[in-house]
Amino acid sequence: MRFPVRAITLDLDDTLWPFAPIGARIERVLDDWMRTHSPATATMFPIEAMRALRERVWRDHPHLAHDLSALRRMTLEIALRESEGDMTLLDAAYEAFYAERNRVEFYPDALDALERIAAQVPVVALSNGNADLARCGIDRHFAFQLHAREHGAAKPEPSIFLAACERLRCEPNEVLHVGDHVDADVRGAALAGLRSCWINRVQATWPHDDVAPDLHFDTLAALADWLERR
Question: Which keywords does this Swiss-Prot/TrEMBL entry list (predicted)?
Answer without folding.
Answer: Hydrolase
